[in-house]
Amino acid sequence: MLTRRTTLELECLETKWAVHLPYRQANSLLKEVLPLNQAISFGGTRRRVLAVGQRLDQLVQHDIAQHRNRDNGGLESRESKDVACVAVDSAWLTLYASPKIRRAQHAEEQLHCMRMKQVWSHHVNIVAGRATFASRPARLYGYVHKQVASAAERLDQFLRAGGVQPDERVTVISDDAGEFVKAVQGSALARGRILDWFHIAMKFKAAENSVWGSKHVEPHERDRVRDWLRRAQWLVWHGKGRQAVARIKGIDEELLARPEHEDSTLWWNLRRLYFYIDNNESTLVNYGARYRKGLPISSSIAESAVNLLVSHRMAKKQQMRWTNEGAHHLVQVRVAALNGELTPKRLAALSRVPCANASQARQVA
Questions:
Q1: Is the Cβ–Cβ distance between 141 and 128 less than 8 Å?
Q2: Is 363 or 40 the better-scoring residue by pLDDT?
Q3: What does the pLDDT read at residue 119?
Q4: CA-to-CA distance for 233 and 64, rounded, in angstroms?
Q5: How far is residue 332's CA from residue 281's CA, in Å, rounded to a whole number?
Q6: Which helix H or strand E contains 37, and what residues bound it?
Q7: Model confidence over 121-135: pLDDT tens digits?
Q8: Which end of the chain is more exposed for a tag (fewer CB within 10 A), N or C?
Q9: pLDDT above 90: percentage of residues in the chain
Q10: Phi and psi based region of residue 360 (left: phi greater than 0; alpha: psi -120 to 50; beta: remaining)
Q11: Global confidence as pTM
C-alpha cells in the first residue's frame, strides 16, 4: 500500500528548499523546523532534485515531439494579445576543476599542476528567458544550451505553455548572440527579434567616454565629436540604423586623418559600434515609438531572470562544480518552483514519468 518512502508533502518541501539553497543548507534547515532527525540526507536530496529535473525535461521533450511539424492550418498570423513580449539572455559559469588540483594539499602542488596544464576549463552556458503577460504574472524558462537539441523548439514549447495560439506571434527581445538569432529564425511562434536597447546605449556610452579620454582629439573638438555621437544615437532611437552607421563612419574617417588614431581606444570603440549597428540593422525598430506606447525595448526582464535562475543559486562565489546535465536538470526544477508549478500534485504526476536510476542521477550532479 505504501509505494513511496516519504510523503509527497515532504518531497515537495525538500525539493523547493534545495533549488533555493545549497543541498546541505536545505537539509540543515529542514531538520531544524521538522522532526526529521536522520530521515533525509545530502546525497538523497541531490538525487531527488536531479531526478525531478530530468522528469520535467522529459515532459518538455515529449510536448515538443507531439507538436513537431505542425502548421497553423493556413490561418493568417496575428500579434498575440496576451503575451506582451519575451526577453532572453544567457549566463556563463566558467569553472576550472581537475582531480589532481582538488587533491593537491599545498599551493605549490596546485601551481605545478596548472603549469603542467593538468587542468581543464569547463563552461556552462545557461539560457534564461521571461515572458510578460497582460493579465497574468510573468513566467520563466531556462536551459543549458548544450543539453537542448533545438533552441527554437524549446522557445516554441515555452510559448505554447504560456497560452500562445498557433496563429499568434510574439516579439522577442535579445542581444546579438548567435544562439538567440537561430532560435528566433527557426521558431514558428516568434514574430521577430528586436535588438536590446540597453546594449546599444552602452556601446554609445563607451565611445563617448573614450572621446574625453583620447589624446588624439583636441579639447575644443571633443564637444563636437560627442554631439555627432549623440545625434547618431538619436537616429538609432528612431530606427534609422543606416543613417546612424553613415554618421559614425564619417566620424571615424575624419579622425583617421590624424596620426596614431588607429592605436587609440576611441578608434576601437567607434569600429565596434559601427559594426554592431551595421550587422544588426534588420533588428532595429523605432524605440521611441515603442517606448511612448508603453512597450518594452530592453531585455532587463531577462537579465533579472538570469539573476533568479543562476546568480542566486549557482553563483561562482559558492565554489560549486557543475556538469552540463546536472545544471540543466537543476534549472528545470528551479524554473518550476519560481513559476509556482512545483506542488505535491505535480510531483505525483512526475513520479509516473520514467527516469534514470540513482546511479545515473549521481553522475549528473
A1: yes
A2: 40
A3: 46
A4: 41
A5: 34
A6: none
A7: 567 888 888 988 888
A8: N
A9: 17
A10: alpha
A11: 0.79
